[in-house]
Design a protein that fits this description.
six-stranded antiparallel β-sheet, 2 domains, MAM_dom, Jelly Rolls, 20 strands, globular, mainly beta, MAM domain-containing protein
Length: 253
Amino acid sequence: MIAENSAGQSLNAAKSETISIGKPSGMPFYETFAKGNLQHKGWRTGTTQSDEAYTYEAWDFLSQTSIYYFPNDDYISVFPKTEGEGMACCKFYGYSTDGQTESLVSPHINVNSLNNITIKLWLYFIPDDGSKNELQAYVNRDDGEWEQVFTSMSLEGEEPGWREISLDIDANGAQRAQMKLSAIAHEGSPISIILDDISIEKSNISAISRHGMQNGNDGTTEYYSINGQRIDKPSNGLYIIRKGGLFTKEILK
């Protein structure tokens, strides 16, 4: 966005709050990035990049890409989860600053006063020894505050590959909702975060209770299932626990 008036055109980029307009998308909502394109209007991106001399477009929609996998000292070719379709790819580089965040925000989606919805997506999982980068998922209801519902930091595994993420969400009787997927660079890891086949549907089960707006960095304790979903009221079992920004695996008895 360029600012201009009678005195001429500004040399610096002008910034404005994003305003979502247009008709919300219906349910069920599917985004497969077919042929490397967005199927729904209203998607938008956000970035924390602040270098006025150079800010790159991190999100791209591709039919094929490759990533360098450090443990094998080799490149892995990555294709969409559904053959012949596309996928979303967030690019990071070695010079990406720690904490650089690139967000992909869905259009508004009519949830029509539903109590519970299920969000599913496929993430190309990279083990911790191959990348420190992180994916976080958020939802908001009727343009309220964003609530974090997922972090990839709690996922485990030894082999890279597609991993399905399924999140049961309390829609709280909202008329419409949005989803935000935030890719975050950590420790200069130049590895892309790759997503595919996003769906939002009515849930047939009762979702977990709505969480507080905490981020795990202020001394609060958060509990996640081994699949990455945040749990508000954990019972006995194995959990990934985040406190003070640190993750541990513990068994609650």
